[in-house]
Design goal:
single chain, alpha/beta, TIM Barrel
Length: about 250
Amino acid sequence: MEIRPNRIKRKLANGETAIIIAGMTHADDIDAVGPLGFDGAWLEGEHGASDPADLGNLTRACDVWGMTSVARINLNEQGMIYRTLDRGAQAIVVPHVNTKAEAVNVVEGGKFAPIGKRGLFTSRQGYGVDNYLQVANDETALIVLIEDIAAYNNLDEILTVDHIDAFFVAPSDFAASMGHIGNIGHPDVQAKINGSIEKIVKSGRTAGTLATNENVGRFADMGVKLFMTNTAPWLAAGSAQFKRNAGL
């Protein structure tokens, strides 16, 4: 048996665009969006309901549809990173990576030796894969969140860290860190977000960001290759249209 391919990691390595859909909290939700062609499912473990005990079923549902299971954790701690991988996630999102040392810590927790220091365990993705410890690094994606003004100030150094698949610029915390909580449209915030993306792309690394129907085209034109989008705005827009059509 061969290790399951990581769809997002492979697309990004080939310079292609990958899209992650967020908002699922149950394996049945992933089954519902599985036929829609998204590259991955965002499993929210920082602010949402995805706990380690849930990851087995959530990641199995992703496997059924060939989607990459992308798990955001809530702490840049090596044991948490590789435990999440052990539970079946194919990609890890680590919040508030503000320095080169913090980026290195992500790699050390997410990769087996000789690249990192991930604890030796077969993981759910490795069952039946005889050479899992030798090939797992090739199918494990690491994504760091650039979401603080400190990360912007240290971005040149952060971008020198190898084995990170995407540097994901997150707008809301970015705004808060600049003293503009709840106002991501503030010109200074937008300048730093755009500047971060431009710097990532110019360095030859992969940029990611949260996107909506309204701004995804602009970000694509800037060179962003990894997008996360949420189902909530689509549900809101669709329900509002339905009510209008019903004369309400």
